[in-house]
From TrEMBL:
PANTHER family, alphabetized: CHROMOSOME 2-PARTITIONING PROTEIN PARB-RELATED, CHROMOSOME-PARTITIONING PROTEIN PARB-RELATED
Protein name: ParB/RepB/Spo0J family partition protein
Phylogenetic classification of the source organism: Bacteria, Pseudomonadati, Pseudomonadota, Alphaproteobacteria, Sphingomonadales
Keywords associated with the record: Coiled coil
Pfam families referenced in this protein's UniProt entry, alphabetically: HTH_ParB, ParB_N
Sections of the chain in a coiled coil: 283-317
InterPro entries listed in its UniProt record: Chromosome_partition/occlusion, HTH_ParB/Spo0J, ParB/RepB/Spo0J, ParB/Sulfiredoxin_sf, ParB_N
CDD domains in the cross-refs: ParB_N_like
GO CC, any one term: chromosome
NCBIfam families attached to this UniProt entry: parB_part
GO molecular function: DNA binding
Length: 592
């Protein structure tokens, strides 16, 4: 129904989907004052008042005119009166067809249509011409804590950060993540998923999401990313272990002398050599099958159809049969080893070797609770600290330079077996920035550029010739230090290079605690099993047992708080493990 109402009878409806203050009100007020109100406002009646659900910008402009005394409270306003149930939908239509709404307004409107209007995401998408996925994502943003939605509407939170906050439905966790990480989507997502595992990770693929969910595991879907997160990392670890135990039993039943299983490739996996299967003869049934397939393939070739789909299928059948001829004999198994581990893409990777063949000199020690990837990070951090120490000691740098060149030129050693790679090549580190928070460590090449920026590319030699001896020695130290590398890389063995790095570290008087201490980020990156192992080693089995039921994130905080000041994870204490020490009984005891 169309009618005219006094301006004083109107109120801005809380159902108006546009909550973020629109722009251009003054200009609109001037236009209305000059030309009058051309378009009706949309209102509904409730509690004796008329509420504006469509035309909020025009109503605000009229209120401004009244405040400026350009119109009175009795100013006649043309309106169209609708039923309240139509208000939300019509408000959304009007605003989407006019000035672009803030996403926060659309989030609130879609949530109202769902909660009060009973409309599904599909209904809303069909009604307003959006994709269902777009509506679903905006509805997901509606799960943000009210305070965060207000901050989003005020542009204090960006769209990417708001999307990251929806990784948790816990409002307290959302607020805490925002307060801790600010407007950084990556940091927020990391903070809210410390106890979760990406569904595209190798272990998730290995177990299978169907098996994980069948065991009671839940998944947080990331509507705004390309993946989701398995919520129960402890359950996932159990399923990986159970599947690997089954694989171990299967290989043991086949008669292999050594059977190893692991969630990731052992450090020395590529140093074990290869054991190749032998080829057996086809049995009568297989020979007949192959003969039949060969006859069909020859017939197709005679017809000129050797590239047809039918021919390809026949070749695949033939290959499936011949692949079965490659087998390990009982004699090979009796003196052979097999290692089964989770591959990079979540497949089962296998390595076979002959047990009585002496392995290369590179040794692998027990790594305790630390995964290969974490050992790489920790030894890289130690390498960075060693570089800084050597860069500050020119005399030691000269000794290292002479040692490396003597080893290569006089003793014929390969440079890749030396800690100082005087090729020269700059050692690059794969340590995330947040692992270095609170430390004084940084990439040495950047410091080199800053310290010696006045050495030109052209005329370099002449410039170096004119430098005083102190500057030359500082340059020498920094250049030599930048080549140092004691890092134990993921899936790599521990050999002469790391041993040489330890020798240099002792000469430099390296105390890593002066450069770096493990922060909360380090503990957040460990598995729950690893955290409990560390707690048991440092605080006793009882302490670990008391914390066994804690959530992984809480456990990481607890372990960090309980460890003594100056504690370092074992792989960060030396580049090579400590040698075994004799006990009082004359036996050898392992030192972690």
């Amino acid at each position: 129904m169309t009618t005219t109402l006094k301006l004083s009878q109107l109120r801005l409806s809380p159902l108006n989907v546009r909550k973020v203050e629109p722009t251009g009100i003054e200009a609109l007020a001037d236009d209305i004052h000059a030309h009058g109100l051309i378009q009706n406002l949309g209102v509904y009646e409730a509690a004796g008042k008329f509420w504006v659900f469509a035309g909020g910008r025009r109503f605000r402009a009229l209120e401004l005119l009244k405040k400026r005394k350009d119109v009175t409270a009795a100013f006649p306003v043309p309106v169209i009166i609708k039923d309240k149930t139509e208000a939300i939908e019509l408000s959304l239509v009007e605003n989407t067809q006019r000035e672009t709404m803030h996403p926060a307004d659309a989030v609130a409107a879609f949530a109202q249509l769902r909660d009060e209007g009973g409309m599904s995401a599909e209904d809303i998408a069909a009604r307003f011409g959006y994709s269902t996925g777009h509506v679903a994502k905006l509805l997901r943003l509606g799960s943000l804590a009210p305070a965060l939605l207000e901050a989003f509407a005020a542009d204090m939170i960006g769209m990417q950060a708001a999307q990251a906050l929806t990784m948790s439905e816990d409002h307290a966790a959302q607020v805490e993540a925002f307060e801790r990480c600010g407007n950084s989507p990556a940091a927020i997502r990391r903070a809210l998923t410390t106890e979760k595992v990406r569904t595209d990770s190798a272990v998730c693929r290995f177990v299978g999401l169907d098996a994980y969910e069948a065991a009671g595991g839940t998944i947080t879907r990331d509507l705004f990313g390309e993946t989701g997160y398995a919520d129960d990392s402890a359950l996932l670890d159990e399923l990986v272990a159970a599947k690997l135990d089954g694989i171990r039993a299967s290989f043991a039943a086949e008669g292999w002398k050594i059977v190893e299983v692991a969630a990731e490739a052992p450090h020395d996996i590529y140093n074990r050599g290869y054991l190749r299967p032998e080829t057996r003869e086809a049995n009568d049934e297989e020979a007949a099958q192959l003969a039949a397939l060969d006859a069909q393939i020859e017939a197709l070739e005679a017809e000129g159809n050797e590239d047809s789909e039918e021919a390809a299928a026949l070749f695949e059948q033939r290959e499936a049969i011949t692949d079965g001829f490659e087998v390990f004999t009982e004699a090979q198994k009796a003196n052979g080893g097999v290692c089964a581990y989770v591959g990079y893409n979540g497949d089962l990777a296998l390595r076979h070797w002959t047990v009585n063949v002496e392995r290369p000199s590179a040794k692998v020690e027990e790594t305790g609770p630390y995964a290969a990837s974490m050992i790489e990070r920790l030894t890289a951090i130690r390498t960075m600290a060693l570089q800084q120490e050597v860069a500050a000691q020119p005399a030691l740098a000269l000794d290292i330079l002479l040692d490396s060149m003597t080893a290569q030129l006089l003793h014929g050693l390969h440079r890749y077996n030396l800690a100082a790679d005087i090729h020269p090549t700059v050692t690059r580190h794969t340590v995330e920035h947040d692992m270095l928070d609170g430390s004084n460590l940084a990439e040495l090449p950047a410091k080199l550029v800053e310290r010696f920026a006045d050495i030109p590319a052209e005329g370099r030699f002449e410039t170096i010739r004119t430098m005083d001896e102190a500057d030359k020695m500082q340059l020498l130290a920094a250049l030599v230090a930048s080549t140092l590398n004691g890092t134990t890389y993921n899936h790599g063995g521990i050999g002469a290079r790391q041993a040489t790095a330890d020798t240099y570290a002792e000469a430099a008087g390296l105390d890593l605690r002066q450069h770096w201490n493990p922060g909360q980020t380090f503990f957040d990156r460990l598995t729950k099993t690893s955290l409990l192992a560390i707690l048991a080693d440092e605080c006793g089995e009882d302490a670990a047992a008391n914390c066994a039921k804690m959530k992984k994130g809480d456990l990481a905080v607890a372990v960090n708080e309980r460890l003594p000041v100056g504690w370092l994870p074992e792989p960060a204490r030396r580049f090579t493990p400590l040698p075994e020490q004799a006990t009082d009984e004359g036996e050898m005891s392992e030192v972690a």
